[in-house]
Amino acid sequence: MRHVESGDRVRVDIPDTEDPDFDRYHGHRGEVVDVIKDDAGEHTGDERDSYLYEVELPGGETAHFRWRDLRPAVDESE
Questions:
Q1: Gap between the Cα atoms of 14 and 72, Å rounded
Q2: Domain residue spans of the chain
Q3: pTM metric for this prediction
């Protein structure tokens, strides 16, 4: 079950300020350009973890996130 699809605009929301990616990505917006299925959900027991979302950020950089770090980018001025 995916809550984000390719083409969706998203905001990166990393809740843990100690996460090594927090300073680099938290609060950035981008577009989901690919959804990659893997077996992480089998290890965690949560099927949502079986999807890795590739997000294109401003400037063309891409990064990969799990569902828990993405929110809909409802308003660009947020």
A1: 13
A2: 9-72
A3: 0.86
